[in-house]
Write a structure and sequence with these properties.
The protein has about 300 residues and is an alpha/beta fold. A 5-stranded mixed beta sheet has the order 5-4-3-8-11. It has a two-stranded antiparallel sheet with strand order 1-2. The radius of gyration is 35 Å and the shape is elongated. The protein starts with a helix and ends in a 6-residue tail after the last strand.
Length: about 300
């Protein structure tokens, strides 16, 4: 009887210990499961925060970054190109406003097309910043440059003969050729050089917005090129200085029409509508060419003025 009672007591103790062991194991398992779920939630939250930070950086940084398949960061290419043509004038005060009020807010690359002997340009801050640097010969007689367009032909006839017959010396459209006044031939030949550089470098595939301008503009406020609507063959120019035509001092165009907008003298030589215009100026010629090419010319509020140094 005593032995039987003792055996029953031991069996009860063993049962309690087994239950306690199961309880302890259960607590440990639940604790580990809780820690695992907590850690997983933390990692998920960190991942979402990192993604949010990446989006914030991309939105804030004008040189936005994106991740490749290898998780390396690379700059997103700019889709806007600002181009300065001709001799550099106006000085660093003006050039700095080009950087701060045009290039930076537009996230724009910079190209310059200058005479090969322009020391001012080569010593400027904009020259150091430029992604594309092109030069042209500073001709003594710009008729030699005009010859490059179509040989010596103008609709099958020597262009010099037609120019001398149809235009008197006050026709600034030929300025720079022989004894014609003004600088029209120089202005439009530089555009022809620029047209060729854009085409040769396939830049209309790399950029959506183009600004073609001069160096001596002082930009008083932000001029964001990338915000202009350049579809539907839209061109944008500032008001004023049009002289019964269109100003040739500043232009915003798109990839679909920038080459046409710069193609002035070749169009001039292929056409007869400018014949007998003895006092044709550059602004009238530009207006007529753009009209023939069916450009939609728009105006924006002027944000710049022209500057000059005593040495310019």
């Amino acid at each position: 009887m005593v032995l039987f009672s003792s055996h029953r007591a031991k069996k009860k103790v063993g049962g309690r210990r087994m239950k306690m062991a199961f309880f302890v194991v259960g607590v440990i398992v639940l604790s580990l499961l809780f820690q695992f779920l907590t850690l997983n939630a933390f990692i998920s939250q960190e991942s979402k925060q990192d993604e949010a930070n990446d989006v914030f950086i991309i939105k804030k940084n004008p040189l936005a970054m994106h991740a490749t398949g290898e998780q390396t960061l690379q700059p997103v290419p700019n889709r806007t190109l600002a181009i300065i043509m001709g001799n550099f004038r106006g000085g660093e005060s003006s050039w700095q406003t080009m950087a701060s009020n045009v290039l930076d807010p537009s996230s724009a690359d910079l190209a310059i097309l200058i005479p090969e002997d322009d020391i001012n340009a080569m010593n400027s801050s904009l020259y150091k910043r430029a992604k594309y640097k092109w030069t042209f010969k500073n001709y003594e007689e710009w008729g030699e440059a005009v010859d490059l367009i179509n040989g010596t032909e103008w609709n099958g006839t020597g262009w010099r003969k037609l120019a001398l017959e149809d235009y008197d010396n006050s026709a600034s459209v030929f300025g720079g050729v022989e004894d014609y006044s003004g600088s029209g031939a120089i202005i439009f030949m530089i555009r022809w050089f620029l047209h060729n550089h854009i085409k040769e470098n396939n830049l209309t595939e790399k950029y959506d917005h183009f600004m073609v301008t001069r160096s001596d503009h002082y930009y008083q406020c932000t001029h964001n090129i990338s915000e202009f609507s350049v579809g539907n063959r839209n061109l944008w120019i500032p008001p004023g200085q049009d002289y019964k035509g269109r100003t040739d001092r500043h232009l915003i165009a798109g990839s679909d029409n920038v080459l046409d907008a710069l193609d002035v003298f070749p169009t001039f030589m292929r056409s007869n509508w400018v014949r007998k215009k003895k006092r044709m100026n550059t602004e009238k010629l530009l207006s007529r060419v753009w009209e023939e090419k069916k450009m939609n010319v728009n105006y924006f509020d002027r944000v710049m003025f022209t500057t000059a140094l005593p040495t310019d």
